[in-house]
Amino acid sequence: GRLNADNARFLLLAVLIVLYMLCGAAVFSAIELPTEREAKERWEERLENFTRRHNLSRAELRHFLREYEEASVAGIRVDDIRPRWDFTGAFYFVGTVVSTIGFGMTTPATVGGKIFLIFYGLIGCAGTILFFNLFLERLITVIAYVMKSCHERQLRRKGVLPHNSRRGSGTSEADSLAGWKPSVYYVMLILCVASLIISCCASAMYTPIEGWSYFDSLYFCFVAFSTIGFGDLVSSQNIKYESQGLYRFGNFVFILMGVCCIYSLFNVISIVIKQSINWILKKLDCRCCHRCQRKLFRSRRNVVMPGNMRSQRNISIETDIVNESDTDGRRLSGEMISMKDFLASNKVSLAIMQKQLSETANGYPRQMSSNSKQNGFSGGVGALAIMNNRLAETSVDR
User: Fold this and answer.
1) Backbone angles phi, psi at 237, to 5 degrees
2) 315 within 8 A of 346, measured Cβ to Cβ
3) Residue ranges of the chain with pLDDT lower than 70?
4) Would you say residue 4 lies in a domain?
5) Do residues 292 and 310 touch, judged by C-beta distance below 8 A?
6) From what superkingdom does this record's organism come (predicted)?
């Protein structure tokens, strides 16, 4: 039943993630391992030449380098950089903590600092994630409103709507917009464009000020905005900049806007991944059903196939829901389901997402449909629940 379907989705997602990680590990190993080996050979050669030139033993030199590594962890560098733990440095550090970026270039060294970080991060990360969720909810509302306004303008240009009609007045405008539903995939496209614009603008600022190449700046933007935070490139670490106050403010604004957009984009992409998982499960279920039905058909050659008796009619949200329950009943009876019925019922998810997004744009109150209860991914908390509520992402169990 429902529990088995949820377990199937969970297991399939876990298998896909493991396969994705294995493929990524293979690619990165093939790309980066030769460079690492070359760098290690060059370093061993330099180390050998240095010990010969200065008449030092390898053990003494390695001990000195280990001491420098410990100093580097505490924030000491060969080049002059600003203090890590002055007020501005500490504020930058807590920003990377609550945003879950965690560059790693600054970490508490004292026991008191580590204990305080545990409780501080627990509340700070939870509050920031709540802020990102609320930002995502309002962003979806704004996008839906803009898309609906653009659609109304197109209708007025085509003459479908009168130019002097007031919003929400009259039945002609309501009838003309009744069948229109904004595409959910536009949300992902808009977020992709917004993230790209912010990253390009931020890179244009980082390149001359930090001295990075433009590609390195784009790389830093993705690592920082996605909260991966490797720490190999970190902005605002030099001891002094031209227009230092303005640059640090711009750096803060770009990171805040970038994290919000990328966070929202990740959640929209997660909806697409869920839809793909459901599609795979449906394909697997359909093949298994066909195998069983072929065996059943051999023993019941005179059975009447209900898919051939279905009347021709247009597909809508309501008819999809009716077809869904009818299809479930036939599957439980062990009879064959036609491919036409399967493809028609497969449109339920996108249709209901678009319907709920349209209601958001029009300001209609959201109502929980009966289909949302059947969604294997519905419910939950956080950004996923907000995306399910705003976009009404529903994958009906079949």
Assistant:
1) -110, -15
2) no
3) 1-3, 75, 80, 161-182, 289-398
4) yes
5) no
6) Eukaryota
Check: CB of residue 95 under 8 Å from CB of residue 252. yes
CB-based contact 33:69 (threshold 8 Å): no
Output the pLDDT for position 176. 53
Dist. CA 266–CA 145, nearest whole Å: 21
- The gap between the terminal CA atoms of the chain, to the nearest Å, is 10
pLDDT at position 205: 95
Total domains in the fold of the chain: 1
CB 12 within 8 A of CB 285: no
Write the burial class of residue 85 (CB in 10 Å: 0-12 exposed, 13-18 middle, 19+ buried). Answer: middle
Reference 133, options 389, 390, 393, 382; nearest CA is: 382
Tokens encoding 363: 């300001």
Which residue range(s) make up the domain with 40?
A: 1-78
Does some domain include residue 185?
no
Q: What count of other Cβ atoms lies within 10 Å of the Cβ of residue 200?
A: 13
- Token pair of 205 as six digits: 């600022």
pLDDT tens-place string over residues 293-309 = 666 556 555 444 444 44
- Partners of 238 in beta bridges: 81
Beta bridge partners of 81: 238
Q: Is residue 55 part of a domain?
A: yes
- Identity (one letter) of the amino acid at 360? T
pTM: 0.68
Please write down the HEC assignment for all residues of the chain: CHHHHHHHHHHHHHHHHHHHHHHHHHHHHHHHHHHHHHHHHHHHHHHHHHHHHHCCCHHHHHHHHHHHHHHHHCCCCCCCECCCCCHHHHHHHHHHHHCCCCCCCCCCCCHHHHHHHHHHHHHHHHHHHHHHHHHHHHHHHHHHHHHHHHHHHHHHHCCCCCCCCCCCCCHHHHHHHHCCCCCHHHHHHHHHHHHHHHHHHHHHHHHHHHCCCHHHHHHHHHHHHCCCCCCCCCCCCECCCCCHHHHHHHHHHHHHHHHHHHHHHHHHHHHHHHHHHHHHHHHHHHHHHHHHHHHHHHHCCCCCCHHHHCCCCCCCHHHHHHHHHHHHHHHHCCCCCCHHHHHHHCCHHHHHHHHHHHHHHHCCCCCCCHHHHHECCCCCCCHHHHHHHHHCCCCECC
